[in-house]
Amino acid sequence: MINMILQAAPAAGAAGGGSWSLLLMLALMFLVMWLFMIRPQRQQQKKLEEMRNALKKGDKVVTAGGIYGVVADVDERTVLIKVDGEVKLRVDKSSIQKDMSEAPAAPAEKK
After folding, report:
1. Taking Cα atoms as reference points, which of 104, 71, 87 lies closest to residue 95?
2. CB neighbours of residue 4 within 10 Å
3. Which site in 21, 23, 66, 91 is 20 to 30 Å from 103, CA atoms measured?
């Protein structure tokens, strides 16, 4: 009887070590996921928010719907965009996706 108890004791100790390795593996997976997915997404969102807050009259922008225009007026939550001629659209600031005034000019096509 004592012989069976002594043989079972090392097996229980080995199972306890397995749980630590499982916890370490899960923590490592979360760390890798945070480094490669969550952190870059937060940085991108922060840059987009800074760009939206820095909008000023005359900036060329693109909305989420693909509308290109020039900023005519900026309010706290909305932006008035001059689209074509005297056509102006008022859109929510959160729909602005790109500031095209900072983008480099496209190279000319070779013929």
Report:
1. 71
2. 8
3. 91
Under 8 Å between Cβ of 101 and 60: yes
Nearest to 65 by CA among 48, 83, 77: 83
Burial of 81 from C-beta contacts in 10 A (0-12 / 13-18 / 19+): buried
Q: Is 90 exceeded by the pLDDT of residue 10?
A: no
Dump the DSSP string for 3-43.
HHHHHHHHHHHHHHHHHHHHHHHHHHHHHHHIIIIIHHHHH
Cβ contacts of 6 within 8 Å, gap of 6 or more: none
**75 φ, ψ (degrees, to nearest 5):** -105, -175
Residue 45 exposure: Cα atoms within 13 Å on the Cβ side: 6
